[in-house]
Amino acid sequence: MDQINKLKKPVISEKSFALAEKDKYVFVVKNDANKIEITKAVEKAFKVHVVKVNTFVTKGKVKRFGKVYGQRSDYKKAIVSIKKGEKIEDFKGI
Q1: CB within 8 A of 22, min separation 6: which ones?
Q2: Under CATH, to which class is 3-85 assigned?
Q3: Non-local CB neighbours of 36 within 8 Å, separated by 6+ positions
Q4: Is the pTM of this model over 0.70?
Q5: Any alpha helices (H) in the chain, and if so which ranges?
Q6: Whose CA is closest to 25, among 37, 36, 11?
């Protein structure tokens, strides 16, 4: 499987843009992706050097759908720290 497919989308929020100022970028990744695969995917997709990857799983909220209660899907996020001085330009343009 191609490594770039492990990245689903960047997280667009005020907090993620504040982290981008500190050379840290937040992505939603596939649930089966590990830190090594995420590192390779970011380096290949954006041509940067990854220093560190932190991952965590966000549990889906319990929501009501009409009369029935259901649960949204769980998803995995990765905070990727890149080498100082490098930037991911595509992330800023979104």
Answers
A1: none
A2: alpha beta
A3: none
A4: yes
A5: 14-20, 35-46, 89-92
A6: 11
* Tens digits of residue pLDDT in 7-39: 999 999 999 999 999 999 999 999 999 999 999
Q: Can you read off the two tokens belonging to residue 15?
A: 């907090």
Tokens (6 digits) for 3: 């490594």
> Which residues have C-beta within 8 Å of that of residue 89, sequence separation ≥ 6?
none
**Cα radius of gyration rounded to whole Å, the chain:** 15
Q: Three-state secondary structure along 36-58?
A: HHHHHHHHHHHCCCEEEEEEEEE
